[in-house]
Amino acid sequence: MDKKPGVWLTCPMSQYLQQQLTTRFTLFKSWEIPSKQDFFNHQSHSIRAVVGNGVHGADSDLIESLPCLEIISSHSSGLDKIDLVKCVEKGIRVTSTPDMLTEEVADLAVLLILATVRKICACDRFVRNELWKQRDFGLTTKVSGKSVGIIGLGRIGSAIAKRLKSFTSQVCYYSRSEKPNSGYKYYPNVIELASNCEILVIACSLTKATHHIVNREVIDALGPNGFIINIGRGAHIDEQELVTALVEGRLGGAGLDVFEHEPDVPVQLIDLDNVVLSPHVGTCTVETRKAMADLVVANLVAHFSNEPLLTPVV
Ligand code: NAP
């Protein structure tokens, strides 16, 4: 690489990633730039790459503001915050970080299943608030042996299914396409899946087709003894319908890592004992974040050295 290419970082990410980028590129930290409009008016030509993540990606406005943009290297596997159509139109390459995070997110899904069904967060509050001295906590329900329906038997969905074998769960799924060799039962739509399982796990990518894929009808098909676990994206669920169902007792419980308007979380969820909330931490371990950062950088280095991209999307 001759002159260091300019890279636009859409939001604060790990110190490690920022150091790695600074070593090889001229880094522009979007949040430190006082007037973005001024910057785009005068310096937009210096930016040849964008690094974003699953929350702060590259929308149409950002892409249009950067006439010399060649590549978006996303620190995520989800690409719903990138205008992929525009990228294809303009010949901008896009890379993501699949595989690096699969095991971590699958672990969190299982953790949320166990914590939600066995109400472990409510148990913890019960002990801390010294309520144990007054009464027993009460009964929950078993995880082992329950039927689990997975929406999206992709990388993460398959890793969740694999883990659930040790809980003797009956795993079934819905995806765009049937996977005949998976050994799991396929349902051709989400309603049938929800009608035939007790725990519904959302692990698909967010697209127009999967926006609000879990709506009132799906929630009602799952019923008052059913649980929803979401490690995909908040907008997979019609959140208002979810909240209403939980408040009215039409759904047994929910374990949520992602929210429709995160970091805002519906206030009605805060006091519910049958809900477990986590702040979009599916990939938040030192090991996984380092592996993701290395891949983000490796894709940029490959691009600017005219080498094949490691994990191209478009
Ligand atoms: P992946 O391997 O690409 O799998 C995506 C799955 O979504 C595939 O099984 C695909 O179906 C399914 N899908 C896509 N469109 C669908 C539709 N219209 N109807 C039904 N299923 C559909 O991706 P991954 O690595 O497993 O990641 C999945 C998602 O998890 C990401 O897109 C991201 O949003 C989310 N995620 C969240 C976190 C977190 O921190 N909570 C971290 C990483 C990723 P086919 O198998 O038929 O193609």
Write up this protein.
The protein has helices at 15-24, 36-43, 60-65, 84-90, 102-117, 120-128, 155-164, 190-195, 216-222, 239-248, 286-304, and strands at 6-9, 26-29, 47-53, 71-75, 93-95, 147-151, 170-174, 185-186, 199-202, 227-230, 253-256, 275-277. The protein is of the alpha/beta class and 314 residues long. It folds into two domains: 6-98 and 286-304, Rossmann fold (3-Layer(aba) Sandwich), CATH 3.40.50.720; 102-277, NAD(P)-binding Rossmann-like Domain (Rossmann fold, 3-Layer(aba) Sandwich). Helix 1 runs parallel beside helix 11 and helix 5 crosses helix 7. NADP nicotinamide-adenine-dinucleotide phosphate (NAP) is lined by residues 77-78, 98, 101-102, 105, 152-157, 174-177, 203-207, 209-210, 231-233, 257-258, 280, 282-283.
Short overview:
The protein has helices at residues 15-24, 36-43, 60-65, 84-90, 102-117, 120-128, 155-164, 190-195, 216-222, 239-248, 286-304; strands spanning 6-9, 26-29, 47-53, 71-75, 93-95, 147-151, 170-174, 185-186, 199-202, 227-230, 253-256, 275-277. By secondary structure, the protein is an alpha/beta fold. Helix 1 (15-24) packs parallel to helix 11 and helix 5 crosses helix 7 (155-164).
Mean pLDDT: 97
Measure the end-to-end span: 23 Å
What is the fourth-level CATH superfamily of the largest domain?
NAD(P)-binding Rossmann-like Domain
- Give the name of the CATH architecture of the largest domain: 3-Layer(aba) Sandwich
Q: What number of structural domains do the residues give?
A: 2
Which topology of the largest domain does CATH recognise?
Rossmann fold
What's the CATH class of the largest domain, please?
Alpha Beta
Determine the number of helices (DSSP H or I, runs of at least 4 residues): 11
Question: What's the arrangement of strands in the largest beta sheet?
Answer: 8-7-6-9-10-11-12
Present as ligands are: NADP nicotinamide-adenine-dinucleotide phosphate
> What is the element string, with H for helices and E for strands?
EHEHEHEHEHHEHEEHEHEHEEH
Unreliable spans? none
General form: elongated
How many strand elements? 12
Task: Bin the helical content.
Answer: 25-40%
Pfam family, one: 2-Hacid_dh_C
Protein name: Hydroxyphenylpyruvate reductase
GO molecular function: (2R)-hydroxyphenylpyruvate reductase [NAD(P)H] activity; glyoxylate reductase (NADPH) activity; hydroxypyruvate reductase [NAD(P)H] activity; NAD binding
Domain D-isomer specific 2-hydroxyacid dehydrogenase catalytic: 42-313
